[in-house]
């Protein structure tokens, strides 16, 4: 069945057959409606409002890696406490040029407000993690997020893809995102040093492990929503990757974390990047560090942009917890696995949540027993 699109001028009601035929939703073209389509409605349990501010430390990365012993200990202890509780912290003095960060958000917004026919040229194909997505409606037909996003791998292909799909004039945009990704790769290695120190296994262990790894960059755009209390910008989920580095606008709140039995907001701090532990890194620490469920909420009056940089191990590199993190029981909580296996599992299963990594571990154990 041919793909159809729900845009500003069409009827809100869609048949189930049309949905199964891959109807694509573009929230940027729905923002002026009085109500949102039913496909964007979320259960009350998922849209309960946040009731507090997350206690996430602001880590001075330069001080943490080059300061005196007492300064390093202070930073490392703060990071360790946060990672054991909810897995979120912020980094400042990270060394990335503010101009690169600002331009990345500006170019992303320019892409998101392009005409529909232009966006369609770079639409994400089913089964692919590359390209433009309208509310992830190429994959799901209910509980859609009120956002659009552009995802690409940081391997140089974004320059060619944007140039060949949208025209040579977009190649500089691709080059800018390659520069952004390269800066994030370097930052990743510094953060890995700090995580190694915080776990007592030295700063080289994780840096060496992630020296050559995969990265995915995702630009997110959350348009104004006529009924923000009924939907989500990004629904509750955990990140299956090792680490996520989030660059977001300073002016708008939206990120919320579920910890301590309630949703807590994480307001932006000017100049800071948000870092959170993903499922893969939690497994690498034998659950010492936590990967928590989080979400993005939307509002009625203004848009919000963010860029998530997902850090993944090399696809076929064996992932297992360091011997020193096993504890007195001598038991690893997860069988050895690769990122390739986990990625395939997440693409076949439904949405990533706090049970994803446990279900994946069970899947591996059952598969191993059946052999």
UniProtKB/TrEMBL annotation:
Superkingdom of the organism of origin: Eukaryota
The family this protein is said to belong to: Belongs to the iron/ascorbate-dependent oxidoreductase family.
UniProt keyword annotation of Methyltransferase present: no
Keywords: Iron, Metal-binding, Oxidoreductase
Protein name as catalogued: Gibberellin 20 oxidase 2
Keyword Oxidoreductase: yes
Catalytic activity entry: gibberellin A53 + 2 2-oxoglutarate + 3 O2 + H(+) = gibberellin A20 + 2 succinate + 3 CO2 + 2 H2O; gibberellin A12 + 2 2-oxoglutarate + 3 O2 + H(+) = gibberellin A9 + 2 succinate + 3 CO2 + 2 H2O
Source organism per UniProt: Rhynchospora pubera
GO MF, one example: oxidoreductase activity
Cofactor(s) the protein requires to work: L-ascorbate
Annotated signal sequence range: none
Example of a GO biological process term: gibberellin metabolic process
Fe2OG dioxygenase domain ranges (all copies): 213-313
């Amino acid at each position: 069945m041919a793909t159809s699109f729900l845009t500003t001028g069409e009827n809100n009601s869609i048949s189930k057959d049309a949905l199964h035929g891959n109807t694509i939703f573009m929230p940027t073209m729905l923002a002026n409606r009085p109500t949102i389509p039913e496909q964007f409605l979320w259960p009350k349990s998922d849209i309960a409002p946040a009731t507090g501010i997350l206690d996430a430390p602001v880590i001075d990365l330069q001080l943490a890696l080059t300061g005196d012993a007492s300064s390093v200990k202070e930073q490392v202890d703060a990071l360790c406490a946060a990672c054991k509780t909810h897995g979120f912290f912020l980094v400042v003095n990270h060394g990335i040029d503010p101009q690169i960060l600002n331009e990345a958000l500006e170019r992303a917004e320019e892409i998101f407000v392009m005409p529909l026919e232009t966006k369609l040229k770079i639409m994400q194909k089913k089964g692919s993690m590359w390209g433009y997505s309208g509310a992830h409606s190429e994959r799901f037909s209910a509980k859609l997020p009120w956002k659009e996003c552009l995802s690409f791998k940081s391997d140089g292909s974004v320059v060619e893809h944007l140039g060949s799909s949208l025209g040579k004039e977009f190649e500089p945009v691709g080059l800018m995102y390659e520069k952004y990704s390269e800066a994030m790769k370097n930052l990743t290695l510094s953060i890995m040093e700090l995580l190694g120190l915080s776990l007592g296994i030295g700063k080289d262990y994780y840096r060496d492990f992630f020296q050559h790894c995969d990265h995915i960059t995702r630009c997110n755009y959350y348009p104004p929503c006529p009924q923000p209390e009924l939907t989500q910008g990004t629904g509750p989920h955990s990140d299956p990757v090792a680490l996520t580095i989030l660059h977001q606008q300073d002016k708008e709140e939206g990120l919320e974390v579920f910890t301590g039995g309630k949703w807590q907001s994480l307001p932006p701090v000017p100049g800071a990047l948000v870092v959170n532990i993903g499922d893969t890194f939690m497994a690498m620490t034998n659950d010492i560090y936590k990967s928590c469920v989080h979400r993005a909420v939307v509002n009625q009056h203004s848009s919000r942009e963010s860029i998530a940089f997902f850090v993944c191990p090399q696809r076929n590199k064996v992932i297992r917890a360091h011997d020193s993190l096993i504890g007195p029981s001598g038991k690893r909580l997860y069988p050895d696995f690769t990122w390739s296996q986990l990625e395939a599992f997440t693409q076949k299963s439904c949405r990533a949540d706090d049970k994803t990594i446990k279900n994946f571990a069970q899947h591996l154990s059952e598969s191993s027993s059946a052999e």
